[in-house]
Specification:
The protein has two domains: 23-49 and 151-183; 50-149, Sandwich (Jelly Rolls). The chain has 195 residues and is of the alpha+beta class. α1 runs antiparallel to α2 (152-185). The two termini are 50 Å apart. It contains two helices and nine strands, in the order αβββββββββα. The chain is elongated.
């Protein structure tokens, strides 16, 4: 009687190696870091806005000509509740002027760095310099301020949108690798195409 020698068949690989998971996990970690550092930068931006009391007055220094956003900060700001009042901006630097104060065209609110604010106006100045901001307000709660500086809305979008896209890509990549591994391990392979 002849007995055939046992031949070890090569083990079937269960699809992509688990090392492939390192790529989508790295993308997820990158998304988390992007959002963490983005929000740290956003927090610093909010903290660096120049503030004057509302009502009241104060000097601000603007580093360039062009547009700035005026935010109301105080009780009710995160809900969009802004006391009525007036803002008057006068130049203190010769040859520079405040050109216009117009209503802000979008809805932007923030609650960062111990500040809660809502965008109310856009201030346009002709160049860099010092300005005196004089404000009046009816029924403004104690501790209300106007904060003036760059757009917080653009920074929010630049932080959140890429972070969410990277996060979704990382999660999608992880799920895809795990599904392929499961199908290979169960012997099903990829679904058959009807074409």
């Amino acid at each position: 009687m002849y007995t055939a020698p046992l031949v070890n068949a090569p083990a079937k690989r269960p699809g992509p190696s688990l090392l492939w998971l390192a790529l989508p996990v790295a993308v997820i970690v990158g998304a988390a870091l992007w959002m963490i550092f983005g929000f740290i930068g956003l927090n610093n931006q909010v903290n660096s806005l120049q503030r004057v009391p509302f009502p009241g007055q104060g000097e601000i220094t603007l580093p360039h000509g062009g547009g700035y956003v005026v935010y109301y900060e105080g009780p009710g700001a995160s809900g969009g509740h802004v006391p009525t009042g007036d803002i008057n901006v006068r130049h203190l630097t010769p040859g520079v002027e405040a050109k216009a104060i117009t209503p802000y065209s979008a809805s932007v609110t923030y609650h960062l760095g111990g500040h809660s604010g809502v965008a109310i106006d856009t201030l346009t100045v002709s160049g860099p310099g010092k300005f005196l901001v004089v404000t009046t307000a009816q029924n403004a709660p104690a501790g209300s301020d106007l904060a003036i500086g760059g757009s917080v809305g653009g920074s929010i979008v630049a932080t959140v949108v890429p972070g969410v896209i990277l996060l979704l890509a990382g999660i999608g990549g992880t799920v895809a690798i795990l599904v392929v591994r499961h199908r290979k391990a169960s012997g099903r392979g990829a679904p058959a195409s009807g074409w």
